[in-house]
Automatic annotation (TrEMBL):
UniProt-recorded name of the protein: NUDIX hydrolase
CDD domains membership: NUDIX_Hydrolase (cd04685)
Keyword annotations from UniProtKB, A to Z: Hydrolase, Magnesium
Organism for this UniProt entry: Kitasatospora phosalacinea
Cofactor(s) the record lists: Mg(2+)
Length: 173
């Protein structure tokens, strides 16, 4: 069955938020013609037959070279529209949490080139929440992380953001 003109192809994806012992989060810098420069956690498309957590684990290893980390609890899900390698998609993402040491990625430059990853850095909570910070995927990432830091110990209750439309590229979360 053909999709109507202008329809977006569904795409499933998974990401892993990596938090350092100091509370910093590791993010990649990307650029997209529809949404502009933004920061997002390691992750990407889920392959056929993979569960979201299996996809998150594979992507975390491929994009960082870190094989000692495993995605933990689900933090949130959301959907957003963008164009991936020339194809308009509506991406449904599962975002997981893990903790790990503050370090640089391994030898993953070729993966970054193919995926359009422009750079990376560790963000403190204050830097991520600053009004002049570059946008993040999802747009309220600083708020989600603040909720995790203030939550009581125990299981995480995942947040379901639904479809989050993108606005014109601007700074801020």
């Amino acid at each position: 069955m053909r999709r109507p003109v202008g329809a977006r192809r569904p795409r499933r994806a998974a990401r892993t938020l990596v938090l350092s012992p100091e509370g910093e989060v590791f993010l990649f810098r990307s650029d997209n013609s529809e949404v502009g420069v933004h920061w997002n956690a390691p992750g990407g498309g889920i392959e056929p037959g993979e569960s979201p957590i299996e996809g998150a684990l594979r992507e975390l290893h491929e994009e960082t070279g870190w094989t000692d980390l495993r995605p933990g609890p689900l933090v949130c899900t959301w959907e957003h529209d963008f164009t991936w390698h020339g194809t308009p998609v509506r991406q449904h993402e599962h975002i997981f949490l893990t903790h790990g040491p503050r370090r640089e990625p391994g030898d993953v430059a070729e993966v970054h080139r193919v995926d359009g990853i422009l750079g990376w850095r560790w963000w403190t909570p204050d830097e991520l929440a600053a009004p002049d910070a570059d946008p993040t995927w999802p747009p309220n990432l600083s708020t989600l992380l603040a909720g995790l830091r203030t939550a009581a110990p125990g299981p995480i209750d995942p947040v379901h953001l639904g479809h989050v439309p993108h606005t014109a590229p601007t700074a801020g979360n």
